[in-house]
Design goal:
650 residues, alpha/beta, Rossmann fold, 3-stranded parallel sheet, rod-shaped, binds 2-acetamido-2-deoxy-beta-D-glucopyranose, Olfactory receptor C family, r1, GPCR_3_9-Cys_dom
Amino acid sequence: LKYMYVMAFAVEEINRNSTLLPGVKLGYRIFDSCSRYPWALQHALLLVGGDTQSCNLTTCIIAVKNVNNISVSFPQISYFASCPCLSDRSKFPNFFRTIPSDIYQAWAMAQLAIRFHWTWIGAVIVNNDYGQLAIQVYVFVVTLYQCFYKYHLHIYEAWSTSNDLLQDLVTSKVASGVLGVAIQSSKISGFENYLRNLHPRDTPSYSYFSSSLKHPFTDTSQLRVSYNVYLAVYAAAHALHIFAHNFFFLEKSSLLNFYCFQLLQHLNKVNVTTPQGEMFYFQGADIPAKYDLVNWQNTPEGTLKLVLIGRVDGFDLILNESAIQWSTGSNQVPVSVCSESCPPGTRVATRKGEPVCCFDCIPCAEGEISNTTGSPHCERCPSEFWSDAERTACILRQVDFLSFNETLVCLCIVSFTFFLSSTLSVHPIHLKVRANNSELSFLLLVSLKLCFLCSLVFIGRPSVWACRFQQAAFGISFVLCVSCLLVKTIVVLAVFRSARPAFNLQIINFVIICAVWLSLSPPVPQQDLGFQGSKVTLKCAMASVVGFSLVLGYIGLLACTCLLLAFLARKLPDNFNEAKLITFSMLIFCAVWVAFVPAYVSSPGKYVVAVEIFAILASSYGLLLCIFAPKCFIILLRPEKNTKKHLMAR
Ligand SMILES: *[C@@H]1O[C@H](CO)[C@@H](O)[C@H](O)[C@H]1NC(C)=O
Ligand SMILES: *[C@@H]1O[C@H](CO)[C@@H](O)[C@H](O)[C@H]1NC(C)=O
Ligand SMILES: *[C@@H]1O[C@H](CO)[C@@H](O)[C@H](O)[C@H]1NC(C)=O
């Protein structure tokens, strides 16, 4: 009823206007469709009188939504048909409207969801063109940013200005805090007065309006659809005005018989300023989008009131967030997510078959971090760094080496002390031995002690000098040891009377190799980044593999020669024939160092050094036991065999 009266009001206003359509009086005919499409169609056809050529001054301000499914060729201006489908000029060439296309409304709602970071959204839609198209636009906009899945009741589609809902006490219990996109509200000056001054005399059926009654009918504070009707009438009048102006030479009467398509052309040209000071023109079928953003807030009476919280102007969304009262009653924006975003230190793992906003958070693996919320993946720390306990930052890896306060090192030292003391105890015993080359045995004992001692220099933080010293000490003591044995064997074989020159030669050779290697390309302390972990092993890296191989090879060569010669000499008659012992000791020596290689290669980090120390200790002790244990046995337990007489008897 109100829409009818606003049309009547607009027509009367135009008729009074001396500049718009001067000398022309507009009229109107209103039919009741009774909300039935067939009736609406029938009445629309009645309006054009079956004559599709002559408009008979008719512009149809239509209230029905889908008359356009039937092709009608007179211009129509709708104030309420918002379906985006009607913007299609190829299907609806004669259609205009003063309500924005719902595309903008769906877009605005999607923008709200994005603004409030709602990623878990449900939609309740009307299952028709309106609902389907709106949801398509909505989903399109929202899925550009986040995901759309389920049901969340914070946004209503176009019912946000419904008085029935607002006044309903049941609704108010569940629907406070609703955000709505409403048709823009405007003022029409003089309209309230017009409504209040309606008299039963003029409108016999509606005789109940009095100036004191507060009724939705007389409430003109929020004219939304009514204002669209008002605009529609003015659009038609302006089109007619342009037409009349262009054909001023025509008789007034010929205005009655102009052609529909002519009016159509002039509707396209309408570009006026409304009394509210806004530009009004059609873009195709549509007018530029303008909406109010409203919020349903509780009133003390228990009903709901509409509060303006912002507006939409085309693709701009202007929102006063602090004016919103949410369903919780506070100003806190409600959270709607499927999964809480992943904290730093974890990464997002999508769940198979579920929307992308539903995910699990998986802690980063060791050595990887994520330092932002909702990180899609963990990043590997650079090689000198490792992840902290929280997996949120890369921290410098701790330098690790075999130090003196470790269990393993304690074990090394205990065995070292044991071995050294055994060597020391052998020493005085050995002085009693009556053997021909006791000088060599003495040297062997000394070099064995050196071997034990050199295991100690492998412990501690590797430094430039420590790295060189380790290799030199290790090499020299072992070459001494093996050389002593080799010379002993040579003496047994009686190749030389004195084996001293051979011995000296071996030592000098080795010292040269060692000196060249250590001066040209010595081992240097280096971090072993190959192994993962919060610690990085500092070790002496062999800068020259050739040098290291030469040193080891030299010792190996001596050992093999010694083994071979001792093996050949094992059956020669001799008192205290040491050849057997040397064969045996060399076998043990070689076995230890052959076993050392795989252990060395497969040990992680600093344990490589420990393995080396054990190999040194084990091989030296092997030598000590094999060579000296039988002698000690004789000296301590069978002293009668250690006499000159016994020796001579042999
Ligand atoms: C409407 O007219 C104004 C000038 O009055 C002009 O600035 C504006 O661009 C016109 N709009 C359109 C869509 O033609
Ligand atoms: C936003 O709303 C608050 C609360 O209603 C009001 O005090 C403030 O003036 C508004 N701000 C703007 C810019 O309209
Ligand atoms: C997060 O880590 C990156 C490197 O992975 C770094 O560039 C950035 O500064 C870090 N941000 C914060 C806030 O720590």
